Amino acid sequence: MQWPWSKDKDDKPSVHWSDTLNATDWSHYRDPRNVIPVVILTSTALFSARLYRIYLRRIDQAGSIQPSFWRKRSLLGKVTSVGDADNFRLFHTPGGRLAGWGWLPWRKIPETNKELRDKTIHIRLAGVDAPELAHFGRPAQPFSQEAMNFLTSYILHRRVRAFIYKRDQYDRAVATVYVRRWLLRRDVGLQMLWRGLATVYEAKSGAEFGKLEGKYRSAEKWAQKKRKGMWAGNEKEYESPRDYKSRMSNSAPQH
Question: Of 11, 26, 192, 210, which alpha carbon lies 20 to 30 A from 251's?
Fold first, then answer.
């Protein structure tokens, strides 16, 4: 009979935890056959996450664009609506068709206004100013409807690439925009200038051109010389979009 307080002859002596740690066979963890696959899998996961965050994550609105993207990135997407002769709405499709947009079942582009609500980026064409349409009781400028019709027919429901510069006071992404026409990449703002349907954007500060200001001014001078679009009328009666907006603002009733 063995009393409870008696020592069992079969009891093993206690082992300190540090002795167990030192006894662990670490060679298993240092074996290249085990280490290399772990390193590869971890690196691939981190790279994939970064790739998605920078290049494949869809951006819903201009306010969601990361500060590091401005002046360094471009956005690929489909134009869903044209609001005026120098701005439109873009549904961002990162990766384009290669990422499945337009043909994979879960990569469909919404079509109704309800589905598109709060899911498009408001884009303002950089470096150009188009004639003003009638707004808030103000009369339309000459050639404003022609400019609107051209922009609509040129980019609506088409895929475009927007090189973004900044976010303006109206929560729009100011960008140089390119569209494929007959396999050629066309600068939308430049095409409007060639046709006399826009002027070079004039402002005391904040005008954005990328590196295209000289090209834009040359196009405007050519259209002016050839009397294209808004340059076709009497020079004395010509009013630039900027002057028109200033006149409308000064004539607005003061409260």
Answer: 192
DSSP strand pairing (199-200 vs 121-125)? unpaired
Judged by DSSP in three states, 87 sits in: strand
d(CA 161, CA 173): 13
**What are the backbone dihedrals phi and psi of residue 178, each rounded to the nearest 5 degrees, phi first?**
-120, 145
How confident is the model over 42-72, as pLDDT tens digits?
777 666 556 555 567 999 999 999 999 999 9
Nearest CA among 205, 241, 206, 237 for reference residue 220: 241
Q: Which among 69, 56, 116, 63 has a CA at the least distance from the CA of 89?
A: 116
When computed from its CA atoms, the radius of gyration of the chain, rounded to whole angstroms, is 31
User: How long, in residues, is the chain?
Assistant: 255
Widest distance between CA atoms in the chain: 124
Whole-number Å distance between alpha carbons of 192 and 20: 78
CA–CA dist 91, 79 (Å, integer): 6
**How is residue 76 written in tokens?**
């690929």
Residue-wise pLDDT for 197-235, tens only, equals: 999 999 877 789 999 999 999 999 999 999 999 999 888
CA distance 164 to 158: 18
Instruction: With residue 121 as reference, give the H or E element that holds it.
Output: strand 121-125
Residue positions annotated with a catalytic role: 124, 132, 172
Task: Enter the pTM of the model.
Answer: 0.80
